[in-house]
Predict the 3D structure of the following.
Amino acid sequence: MDTVETPAAIVDLARVRRNLEATVAYTRAHGLGWRPHVKTHKSPDLARMQMDAGASGLTVATPREAEVMAPVTPDLLLAHPPVPPKTERLMRLPPGVRLTVALDDEALLAPLARAAAEAGRTVGVLVELDVGMGRVGLAGPPEVVALARRISAAGPDLEWRGLLFYPGHIRVTAGEQAPLLAGVASRLDAVLEALQRAGLAPAVVSGGSTPTLFQSHLIPGLTEIRPGTSIFHDRDSVALGAATLDDVAYTVLATVVSTAVPGHAVVDAGSKALAREEFRAVPGQGGFGILLDRPEVRVISVSEEHGVLDLAGTSWRPRVGDRVRIVPNHVCVSVNLQDRLLTFDPGDGATGKSLGELPLSGRGRLAVQGPEVC
Ligand SMILES: Cc1ncc(COP(=O)(O)O)c(C=O)c1O
């Protein structure tokens, strides 16, 4: 790490393994399926680790992620509305892929059924339910039952499979989540009851997020969870109590490039490495990241290639050339800014602490051409 050019994204594989094991242990204890969201890491290698650890399939957000992950598992869920021309592109996934999509609008059914028929494949369909985030998803039982009926009547190329929701509005600590989770549970329960009465009981109820990961059992009826961030965690995760700093597996390695301005040290990781993502977990704390080894030191402002460390709360006085590891506010958007991930494995006696490299094949929008991802 002393010789790597910075800024560089560094992944601690021992922590990744620990994070995966914690999720597996929890889901097994509660009889839940685990379908991690790959939008966080965009790496087929890390997705393979997740499948080997016990994931039942993968969640993707984009056609490219689906294409890149198809060689990793045949069981893919697109947790994003399949709107043409994405629909046609998705139908070009390898024939062995069992694709499920989530949607909240019947206008998407006809193009989806047509594309599926032309491609000779059956596509599973989940109805997206809004459980409080107010982003996408139908509001309640009548709308969900109506759409579920349309799906099950849409012909042999679409298969009604169930429900999907994302509790992205729950961004408080586990101890404060109970009333919010009860709200989710009661919305879901009303929909499940209505579907049952309509003879449309869902085979799948897919939910989950990183802040609520270990509280998922408080939502009766859930069959699987789709955490993404929890493979790495980030400053948000730690602030929300979903992880400790010891669990954070992804950091941006940066070099101090200036200490000329009193009270500050400037590093070479700015918004193009950390992202300019707001820190919302704790009001008044702001900034764009903290140092892994000195969490009292925050990145208080960023330009594209500069990050300003605030030294007000520390006696530490870095010098130009010193290196730091920064925990970004939101890891998924930081990963998306990188060309590759550098990995190290403190637990691997054979290779010591040498750096490995993982391509981020799922980044970008372009279609994957044949063996590019293998
Ligand atoms: C639809 C959907 N499912 C799952 C996730 C994963 O959530 P988290 O990043 O909290 O792990 C996200 C995150 O944005 C999402 O949008």
